[in-house]
């Protein structure tokens, strides 16, 4: 598979609650620290190799950005690297923030 699929916040939340996906948040460090989906992997250029070593290619991955635009390119990249089930979350973290709980490093 070399293409990603789109997924909604609600679908992502359900798959994540069932333990079926990894959330890969590609936003900058400050935005990630200010709020992210609990348990999300902060995927950056610097952590990409570690991510690819930590997760198997058959592990479903949902890529999250700010508004659901940048995540599409990152999702396509992961699909091209061999990940079999890659999704870009529509609406991004801003959509998630309005609908679902999240954590902040500042509140820890």
From TrEMBL:
The chain positions of domain Rhodanese read: 17-104
Which chemical reaction does it catalyze? Answer: thiosulfate + hydrogen cyanide = thiocyanate + sulfite + 2 H(+); thiosulfate + [thioredoxin]-dithiol = [thioredoxin]-disulfide + hydrogen sulfide + sulfite + 2 H(+)
Kindly list the places in or outside the cell where this protein is found, as annotated in its UniProt entry: Cytoplasm
Name the catalytic site residues. 65
Q: Which GO terms describe its molecular function?
A: thiosulfate-cyanide sulfurtransferase activity
The enzyme's main class, written as a single word, is transferase
Its annotated function is as follows: Transferase that catalyzes the transfer of sulfur from thiosulfate to thiophilic acceptors such as cyanide or dithiols. May function in a CysM-independent thiosulfate assimilation pathway by catalyzing the conversion of thiosulfate to sulfite, which can then be used for L-cysteine biosynthesis.
Which family is it part of? Belongs to the GlpE family.
Protein name listed in UniProt: Thiosulfate sulfurtransferase GlpE
By which gene is this protein encoded?
A: glpE
């Amino acid at each position: 598979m070399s293409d990603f699929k789109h997924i909604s916040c609600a679908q992502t939340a359900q798959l994540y609650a069932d333990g079926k996906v990894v959330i890969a948040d590609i936003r900058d460090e400050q935005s990630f620290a200010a709020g992210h989906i609990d348990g999300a992997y902060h995927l950056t250029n610097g952590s990409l190799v570690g991510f690819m070593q930590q997760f198997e290619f058959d592990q479903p991955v949902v890529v999250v950005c700010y508004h659901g635009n940048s995540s599409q390119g990152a999702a396509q990249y992961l699909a091209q690297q061999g990940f079999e089930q890659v999704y870009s979350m529509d609406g991004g973290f801003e959509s998630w923030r309005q609908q679902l709980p999240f954590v902040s490093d500042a509140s820890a």
